[in-house]
Amino acid sequence: MERCPACRARMSEQSVCPRCACDFTLALGAQAAARRHLGSALHALAQGEQTSARQSLLKSQSLQRSTLGNYLERLIIPADSATDF
Ligand SMILES: [Zn+2]
After folding, report:
1. What is the whole-number distance in angstroms between the Cα of residue 40 and the centre of ligand 1?
2. Domain assignment of residue 74, yes or no
3. Cα(15)–Cα(13) distance, rounded to whole angstroms?
4. 54 domain-assigned
5. Residues 1-23 pLDDT 10s
6. In the chain, how many domains are there?
7. Cα(32) to centroid of ligand 1, in Å?
8. Sign of CA pseudo-dihedral 18, 21, 22, 24
9. What is the rounded distance in angstroms from the CA atom of residue 39 to the CA atom of residue 31?
10. What is the reported pLDDT for 81?
11. What does the alpha-carbon distance between residue 15 and residue 1 come to, in Å, rounded to a whole number?
């Protein structure tokens, strides 16, 4: 997060905005968890474990949608089963 979504102050690596004191700890934790789940999905996909890849991808996308996650969704999740979880 480069800028505070509330006041647009520069954030760098901080989780609390230095200007308005908004605490983004939970949001940043969710972003990190989404990245971990996306990595797990890619790893599982590379291992040929479709079910595990699908579950990890759904967890990732539920926390934070990403361009790569959107692509993987189209690749490994049939349109009619996207809500099975
Ligand atoms: Zn702020």
Report:
1. 32
2. yes
3. 7
4. yes
5. 789 999 999 998 889 999 999 99
6. 1
7. 20
8. positive
9. 12
10. 60
11. 9
- 48-70 confidence digits (pLDDT tens): 999 999 999 999 999 999 999 99
Q: Is residue 39 part of a domain?
A: yes
How far apart, in whole angstroms, are the C-alpha atoms of residue 70 and residue 43? 16
Is residue 43 situated within a structural domain? yes
Beta carbons of 73 and 45 less than 8 angstroms apart: no
Helix axis angle for 67-76 and 25-46, nearest 10°, is 40
CA of 35 to the centre of ligand 1 (A): 24
What pLDDT sits at residue 77?
Answer: 77
Residue span of the structural domain in which 71 resides: 32-78
CA of 9 to the centre of ligand 1 (A): 5
